[in-house]
Design a protein that fits this description.
Layout lengths: L19 H8 L25 E5 L4 H6 L6 H12 L7 E5 L6 E4 L2 E4 L4 H18 L3 E5 L1 H8 L5 H4 L3 E2 L6 E4 L2 H5 L4 H28 L1
Parallel strand pairs: 1-2, 1-5, 5-7
Antiparallel strand pairs: 3-4, 6-7
C-alpha cells in the first residue's frame, strides 16, 4: 500500500530564501496541517546555523506553545542539566521538533499532550529538512520514539537501539528518550537511573563530535 501523502504540507509555505530567520518567519503562517487551529503559535527551532548538534523532539509542549520557544518547560530544564553533565555546550545545540504546533486535548482546565498523526508529521517534515540544510549539524539526536521513527522508520525502537550511532545518511543520528519521560518516572530512584542513562546517551553524542573533529 502506498504511503499517505498529505494533500498540502509545509512545502507550500517555504520561503524562497532558506536561511533560519527566513524559515522561522515563514513558519509563523504555516497552514500545512490542521494543528495551527489549536496551537497558540508556531514553535520553530532555536539555535544558530553551524551548531554541531541538532536535537529533535516530537512537538512543543504547553509552555513551549505559550512562549513560542522549544524546550523551555520542565523537560527543557532536564535537557539543560543533561547537556551540561555530558559536556555539550548549550550554545552549540540547535533544538527543534518534528511537529511545530502543540497538539492537545482538554482535561479539565489543563491542555494534555496528544501524539501527532503520521499525516501531521509528514506535513511538517519540510520545515525540519530545511532546518537540517541551514544548520548543517555534525550529529542529529532524536528525543523520543516519535522523532526517531519520523527519521529512522516506523520499525525503529528507542528501547532497543538508543545510544547507538546510526549512519543511514550523510549525518549520523543517535536516538534516546525524550526528557519528559524522565519526569514521568514513578519515584526518585527511577528518575535518577533514567537521568543517568540519558546523560550516558548524550555522552555518546559528545564522543561522536570529538571523533569527527579528530578525523577532520
Amino acid at each position: 500500500m502506498s504511503p499517505k501523502v498529505p494533500p498540502i504540507s509545509a512545502v507550500d509555505f517555504l520561503p524562497s530564501r532558506r536561511t533560519l530567520p527566513a524559515l522561522r518567519e515563514a513558519a509563523r503562517n504555516c497552514r500545512g496541517c490542521d494543528l495551527w487551529k489549536r496551537g497558540t503559535q508556531t514553535v520553530f527551532g532555536e539555535g544558530r546555523a553551524g551548531a554541531e548538534v541538532m536535537l529533535v523532539g516530537e512537538q512543543p509542549g504547553d509552555q513551549e506553545d505559550l512562549q513560542g520557544r522549544p524546550f523551555v518547560g520542565p523537560a527543557g530544564r532536564i535537557l539543560d542539566k543533561a547537556l551540561e553533565a555530558a559536556a555539550i555546550e548549550r550554545d552549540d545545540v540547535y533544538v527543534t521538533n518534528a511537529v511545530k504546533h502543540f497538539k492537545w486535548e482538554p482535561r479539565g482546565k489543563r491542555r494534555i499532550h496528544k501524539k501527532p498523526s503520521g499525516m501531521q508529521i509528514a506535513a511538517c517534515r519540510p520545515w525540519f529538512d530545511e532546518e537540517v540544510k541551514a544548520v548543517a549539524p555534525k550529529v542529529i539526536v532524536c528525543l523520543g520514539a516519535t522523532a526517531a521513527q519520523a527519521l529512522l522508520g516506523r520499525d525503529f525502537r528507542v528501547t532497543r537501539d538508543r545510544g547507538k550511532v546510526l549512519t543511514q545518511g550523510a549525518i549520523p543520528i543517535i536516538a534516546t528518550v525524550h526528557p519528559s519521560s524522565i519526569l514521568r518516572a514513578p519515584d526518585d530512584e527511577s528518575r535518577h537511573a533514567e537521568m543517568a542513562h540519558f546523560i550516558a546517551d548524550l555522552k555518546v553524542v559528545a564522543a561522536q563530535i570529538a571523533q569527527q573533529k579528530r578525523a577532520a
